[in-house]
Amino acid sequence: MAEPVTRPVLIGWSQVSRYDGEPLDAWAEAVSRAGVAVKAIDSLDVVYCQSWPYDEPARRLAERIGATPRRTEYSGIGGTTPLSLLGAAAERIRSGRSDVAAVVGGEALATVRRLKKAGQRPEWSYRDPVKRPFPFEAPFHPSELAHQVFQAYTTFALRDVARRAHRGVTPDDYRRAIGRLFAPMTEVAAANRHAWFPVARTATELTEVTPANRMVAYPYTKLVTAIMDVDLAAAFVVASEEAADRLGVPADQRVYLRGWAEDRDPDYVAEHADLWRSPAMAGTLHGALTRAGVGVDDIARFDLYSCFPASVAFSLDALGLDAGDDRGPFTVTGGLPYAGGPGSGYAIGAVAAMADALVADPGSLGLVSAVGMHLSKHAAAVMSTDPGAGPGAPAGPVDQETVAIAGPVDGPATIAAYTVHHGADGEPTDALLVCDLGDPADRADPAGRPARAYARSTDPAFMRDLEQQEMVGSPVTLRADGEVNTAF
Q1: What is the CB-side half-sphere exposure of residue 12 using CA atoms within 13 A?
Q2: Strand, coil or helix: what is 462?
């Protein structure tokens, strides 16, 4: 006889918002509100906290809540982290290495900002005496360092412009489509008591450039970008069915993890063979669905990671869905710009909100996705109160080609993607371009792969054209000044 399948099941979850005190206090409150006896927790993961450098975050939390887990871990960074931890906990449960696993995270970045404005600093507990570097997973490419390709709003905007050009949509129409995609999310946020900005807004309000809604990185205005400076925390607890029975969790309060997956695209923007799509995102989303034994048409509700419009648009493309699908607006929280995105921990709250929605609609299926770093990391989970037949086998990583990145270049090129940065006063400051090199002699790879180069420009007329016309596919000339390429 076949051995019974151990199904990982969410048995508790919670969200904590607008709290007083330090992140450790909020983590403890979130775990306590999850409604699971802390003595039963044998595994405890804490998501990386940017608000305060605790010396031993997971151990301090265990002490605070009175738990004695066999395993405690402090994570790295990235939006996919909570779903990666959820999947890893599920695998440990399925293999019998864990019985009850908790994942918690949260930030007090709004408090940090408020104190800074007042000329003060937090005075919280258990500060790490060692100053540790920010845990970047991949070093920046030398050409990205030279051209200051650092911010997520830059890299996501580059990818969105490439998608726009591939789809043949005019710049103005594309910005209007961004507003139509995100405006319904604000309505979800308005009804979410945990949302940082519970305000419904129109599509025009989101994309119209005003002093209060300046352009950040074309085509993104401030109101369509993630907000990290929030005081939000959340937790979820995943367990075996046997543990759920032992702990007396009612059947109608269990949400099964039906399928999960994760994968990774190339780390650097210019490396992507097709800047307008993400093969790893598609592989991840369909891998989670396949493992759950369902198709996209079976999903009743979604929470697609929404740090910037590109992450939602690329997800819809990967799933084969139209932005006008009646299952929109593709969030159960309101999204990162409106519900708030506390550092690397947004997806914990998304899982909690999805679990609430699924308990209220028994038997329905929900999909939560996450994106990390510069649209390079992807994770997804399919959940339901219906346990199904048990998770299937995981899919392997997607094979991908990459494009070589050149350094200093003198010669002809073609624009493949671009964005224009704006300062605090709303005025354009500089343009960043990704360019396909037109001369094989400039290709950086000995094997003769196509090559790209980053370039910058501060020419006012050129920046104006980049925002008013479709410039992808236009010829430019690159001139190297040290390690930096300037586009003319």
Answers
A1: 24
A2: helix
230 contacts 107 by C-beta, under 8 angstroms: yes
Q: Report d(CA 429, CA 402) in Å as an integer.
A: 30
**What phi and psi, each to the nearest 5 degrees, are found at residue 429?**
-110, -40
**β-pairing, 365-372 with 301-303?**
parallel
With vertex at residue 165, the alpha carbon angle to CA 224 and CA 418, rounded to the nearest 5 degrees, is 65
- Bond from prior residue into 387 cis (ω within 30 degrees of 0): no
Tell me the C-alpha distance between 288 and 269, whole Å.
25
Q: What is the pLDDT of residue 1?
A: 40
Residue with tokens 């995943």: 238
Fill in the amino acid letter for 255.
V
The pLDDT tens digits for 412-470 are: 999 999 999 999 999 999 999 999 997 545 555 555 556 999 999 999 999 999 999 99
Strand ranges for 18-145 from DSSP E: 43-46, 71-74, 100-108
Cis before residue 184, ω within 30 degrees of 0? no
Q: Rounded to an integer, what distance in angstroms lies between the CA atom of residue 75 and that of residue 85?
A: 8
Neighbours of 197 (CB within 10 A): 17
Distance in angstroms (rounded) separating the CA atoms of residues 196 and 190: 9
The answer to whether 143 and 215 have CB atoms below 8 angstroms apart is no
The 10 Å CB-count burial string (b at 16+, else e) for 258-279 is bbbbbbbbbbbbbbbeebbbbb
Return all residues near 172 (Cβ < 8 A) that are at least 6 apart: none
**Cα distances (Å, whole numbers) of residue 474 to 153, 413, 464, 465:** 23, 9, 15, 11
pLDDT in tens, 303-328: 999 999 999 999 999 999 999 999 99
| Other beta carbons within 10 Å of 429 | 12
- Helix pair angle (309-319, 171-190), 10° resolution: 100
Ranges of residues in the chain with a pLDDT under 70 are 1-5, 439-450
pLDDT for 293: 97
Contact 333, 302 (CB under 8 A): no
Tokens of 371: 């994106």
Q: Strand, helix or coil at 84?
A: helix
3-state secondary structure 287-320: HHHHHHCCCHHHCCEEECCCCCHHHHHHHHHHHC
Residue 287 near residue 394, CB atoms below 8 Å:
yes
Closest by alpha carbon to 172, among 469, 460, 473, 474? 469
Torsion of CA 439, 445, 451, 457, to 10 degrees: -90
Task: Judge whether 22 and 52 are in contact, CB under 8 Å.
Answer: yes
Q: Write down the residue that tokens 């909100």 correspond to.
A: 353
Check residue 4 and give its pLDDT: 54
- Give the per-residue pLDDT at 395: 84
